[in-house]
Design brief:
The protein has about 550 residues and is α/β, with parallel strands linked by helices. The protein has two domains: about 30-355 and about 505-535, Alkaline Phosphatase, subunit A (3-Layer(aba) Sandwich); about 370-495, 2-Layer Sandwich (Gyrase A, domain 2), CATH 3.30.1360.150. The protein is built from 21 helices and 21 strands. It has an eleven-stranded mixed sheet with strand order 7-6-10-9-8-11-1-12-19-2-20, with helices on both faces. Strand 8 (about 150-155), helix 7 and strand 9 form a beta-alpha-beta unit. The longest helix is centred in the middle third of the chain and has 24 residues, at about 315-340. It is globular and about 70 Å long. The two termini are about 40 Å apart. Mean pLDDT is about 95; it is low at about 1-20.
Length: about 550
């Protein structure tokens, strides 16, 4: 009897051994395209043959993905993507905020103790770090699971490379806008790795567009939804808004000013993405990412869609050209991943940090109530509100402001024997009355705190703004202009609001076990990290604001 049982057990074990084992994920890849709209994947699908094309044809695409917070800027957007948390928890509520009870502005990833590290070593200039980040990111989770994990983030922007990775990534790299090449900060290293130095040594020789930036759109492009090459509202003088776009002087004997102009041009136009993806391929090879059973991380953020989109709008020929080039370059990276890691051993997510508003002139021609709001109108509103507050309380307690908020002196309010909440409430009322022509909301710190921290009921735009609340970093009064309007910009466009056009982002996954198709269920960029970790069979006990979209499938 015992022999028969042992024989059956042996047969069962043989069946288990013979069953196909699911391939192990060895590398997680996160791709962000700054200011990319989900419509870009749809309208350009017939021409996407590279990296974006893999997501569209072979990946799982979520066309109804949105951000879940109100202040839709690069810093918070990339940090949401990299942490799976909303700004009210991770603390990076905007690109810049005002220090509490002070006029001082704070850059989201500023660090007074960090110094820039370039190919010439440690510099005197200050640099960025994740010091202001309040929670762990995906790099931290992977390294907590196995200290041998290699975690790297690369972007043109410091806030993108840092925000996508977390607090303790092995390395975050961003473009040096003064001298060209990539840099990091002393938070990560005292010296750049040899492979980064090698790339930096030849960046100018490898730089594309030697005779300027020329469009390379396919001939059969009429159905792509791309706008005419020259439009009202684009940056530049009429007649000079279309291709080709000149590039600055280059060569071995550039002055510091000329070198800075060329380095800034790389950052501001199509070459930025090319340089980032070239360095990502170098990182893959030099660090041997994904070559063992420890799960590594490669985060890549492409910024050219944003820098170009601000100037020309999201449906411009310029942005379309940027995206098609990025598709090809990302395809080269994915090909290298297939070769070095193995197609069955890596998984990728694609998303963006925020959307953007189309040029108001184009929207107005289509019947939208779109317009540009001059800085003077905003200033007049604020001046009138300050006068009303001073008449009621004897002083206005004003410290500083921008188009999205007003910072007051809480210490001065208390010294006057007043309640801060009472002054804020009156300020918000005065702003709404004086700015009724352009203001949609003026929300107080106290309203948002009650929602974010004490569970007060909220919905719509107010709930989204509460997801961007932070006790130390939020303004005393948060301002929100009307939809389809742009405050303070004479040309170009921007983002930063909780309106759908600024919160709409692509979200897609690609890799082994990811079924191809379109999923129209609700999704958000904060779902990327829990979904990737779930697919890699990691992080089941971790808590996120987002969710694993594949759980139960």
């Amino acid at each position: 009897m015992i022999g028969a049982v042992l024989a059956l057990a042996a047969l069962a074990r043989q069946d288990l051994d013979a069953a196909p084992q699911e391939p192990k994920i060895r590398l997680v890849v996160m791709v962000s395209v700054d200011q990319m709209l989900p419509e870009h994947l749809e309208r350009l699908a017939p021409w996407l043959e590279g990296g974006f094309g893999r997501f569209v044809r072979d990946g799982r695409v979520y066309p109804r993905a949105f951000l879940r917070h109100g202040d839709t800027e690069t810093g918070p957007g990339h940090t949401c993507l990299g942490t799976g948390m909303n700004p009210t928890h991770h603390g990076i509520i905007s690109n810049d905020w005002f220090a509490f009870d002070a006029r001082d502005g704070v850059y989201c990833y500023s660090d007074p103790d960090a110094r820039a590290v370039t190919s010439n070593g440690e510099q005197e200039s200050r640099a960025s770090s994740p010091r202001n980040l309040r929670v762990d990111g995906i790099a931290d989770h992977l390294e907590a699971i196995d200290r041998a994990a290699l975690t790297v983030g690369i972007s043109s922007k410091d806030r993108s490379a840092i925000g996508m990775t977390g607090r303790h990534a092995d390395l975050a790299l961003w473009w040096d806008k003064k001298r060209g090449g990539f840099q990091t900060s002393t938070w990560y290293a005292r010296e750049l790795p040899a492979w980064v130095k090698a790339s930096n040594a030849t960046w100018m020789q490898r730089l594309p567009f030697a005779s300027g930036w020329n469009s390379e759109l396919p001939a059969d492009f009429a159905a792509s939804g791309t706008a005419p090459d020259e439009r009202e509202g684009e940056w530049g003088k009429p007649g000079q808004r279309s291709f080709p776009h000149a590039s600055p002087k280059r060569g071995p004997e550039l002055s510091d000013k000329e070198l800075g102009a060329l380095a800034s041009w790389v950052y501001d136009s199509a070459p930025g993405d090319v340089m980032v993806l070239e360095l990502a391929r170098d990182a893959l090879s030099a660090l041997e990412l994904g070559r063992d059973d420890v799960v590594d991380l490669l985060c890549v953020s492409l910024s050219s869609c944003d820098t170009v989109g601000h100037a020309y709008g999201p449906y411009s020929v310029e942005v379309t050209d940027v995206l098609l080039r990025a598709d090809r370059e990302l395809g080269k990276l994915f090909g290298a991943l297939d070769e070095r890691v193995g197609r069955e051993h890596w998984i990728a997510a694609l998303s963006a940090d925020h959307g953007v508003l189309e040029l108001p002139e184009t929207l107005a021609a289509q019947g939208y109530p779109a317009e540009r709001i001059s800085g003077r109108v905003i200033g007049d509103t604020l001046k009138a509100a300050r006068n009303a507050v001073a008449q009621k309380f004897g002083q206005d307690f004003y410290l500083t402001s921008n188009a999205r908020g007003v910072r007051l002196s809480v210490s001065a309010i208390r010294a006057a024997g007043l309640e801060a909440s009472e002054v804020r409430r009156f300020y918000a009322q005065a702003l709404r009355e004086q700015g009724s022509a352009w203001l949609e909301h003026a929300l107080t710190y106290d309203e948002l705190e009650a929602i974010a921290r004490r569970g007060a009921a909220a919905s719509g735009l107010v709930a989204l703004e509460a997801n961007s609340f932070d006790e130390e970093r939020s303004c005393d009064i948060v301002l929100l202009h009307r939809p389809w309007c742009l405050p303070g910009l004479a040309v170009g466009t921007t983002h930063g609001t909780p309106y759908a056009y600024d919160r709409s982002v692509p979200l897609a996954f690609y890799g082994p076990g990811v079924s191809a198709g379109r999923d129209f269920s609700a999704a958000a960029s904060i779902d990327a990290v829990p979904t990737l970790l779930g697919r890699a069979k990691l992080g089941a006990a971790l808590k996120f604001d987002g969710r694993d979209l594949f759980e139960g499938h």
